[in-house]
Design a protein that fits this description.
Layout (H helix, E strand, L loop, with lengths): L2 E5 L17 E8 L4 E5 L1 E5 L8 E7 L1 H11 L12 E9 L2 E9 L26 E5 L6 H6 L6 E17 L7 E20 L1 H10 L7 E10 L2 E10 L12 H8 L2 H16 L4
Antiparallel strand pairs: 1-5, 2-5, 2-6, 3-4, 6-7, 8-10, 9-10, 11-12
């Protein structure tokens, strides 16, 4: 029997475990249709716990004997999936415009630095350092795709909130003056939900640029964020007062970026945005 398998890590060509699959037929290379999160610590771990990026890999046609060998390599027991190190699921992969269904190995038990590009070849350039910073995002940067397109290579992403601030949509969009961007303002007893990213000092310069710090659009502020692992210090961006207005409204395109944070924040985020939007009615 022939089985279609998507490999994204050390089983790929030029990587250490490729010999296990080298005699199988290569159908092509491509990316997953759906977004997942890739963690890497010498070897990659793919999880559907976050929707960070599509995953790059290769698709092979393998026989039953090779599939069994792959199962053993990945610590997957088809007779006891719940006790296995990896689990096996069917996903869709886009190869030059053709969508192919393939088996893929997932691991929801391990965490490590995130490979935001979704390409294991980039993992060797990723390392967490003591000089790294934590960045609290409450606006469009909750969308990991937006962060990646802006060249910000985060290595962790987790849900969090800050106390005594409220979410508002009153920052004047600098290229679209009639539209609003997100902002936070002090408000005793309120909370603002967002995502906490780990970034490098180099990434901080990119964030400053994208937030228009040098042009007086946002300014950088240090805040205390509440996470599942305690309170942490982080930087965030708050709109300069003369760049705000109460007579503007966010576009649906802009709001869609915020909604991408729901993979970690769920209904809590959706309710928070809805509450903020009600102030316009």
């Amino acid at each position: 029997m022939k089985n279609i398998v998507f490999v994204y890590g050390t089983l790929r060509k030029t990587f250490s475990n490729h010999a296990h699959i080298s005699s199988s037929r290569l159908l092509g290379a491509g990316r997953t249709c759906e977004k997942f999160v890739m963690f890497s610590r010498l070897i990659p771990f793919l999880s559907d716990s976050q929707k960070v990026s599509t995953i790059y890999g290769e698709v092979y046609e393998v026989d039953d004997k090779t599939l069994s060998a792959l199962d053993r390599l990945e610590g997957y027991n088809p007779n006891s999936p719940s006790s296995s190190w990896y689990r096996r699921s069917i996903i869709n992969v886009n190869i030059d415009g053709e969508v192919i269904s393939a088996l893929c190995y997932f691991n929801d038990k391990e965490t490590a630095p995130i490979v935001s590009s979704g390409d294991f070849a980039d993992a060797q350039n990723i390392a967490q350092k003591s000089s790294d910073l934590l960045y609290f995002a409450y606006g469009s940067n909750m969308n990991p795709t937006r962060m990646i397109k802006r060249g910000i290579n985060f290595t962790s992403r987790e849900p969090c909130f800050i106390s005594n601030f409220t979410l508002k949509f009153n920052k004047i969009a600098y290229k679209l003056p009639g539209e609003a961007y997100a902002n936070i303002e002090p408000c005793k007893g309120d909370v603002t939900h967002g995502l906490l990213y780990r970034v490098t000092t180099k990434d901080l310069l990119a964030l400053d640029k994208n937030e228009g710090v040098s042009y007086g659009h946002y300014y950088r502020e240090e805040v205390l964020v509440n996470t599942d692992f305690g309170i942490k210090k982080a930087i965030c961006y708050i709109a300069c007062h003369d760049r705000t207005s109460e007579d503007i409204y966010p576009s649906q395109k802009y709001l869609n970026h915020l909604y991408e944070g729901a993979d970690l924040l769920g209904q809590t985020l959706l309710d928070s945005i809805s509450t903020s939007l009600k102030t316009f009615r």
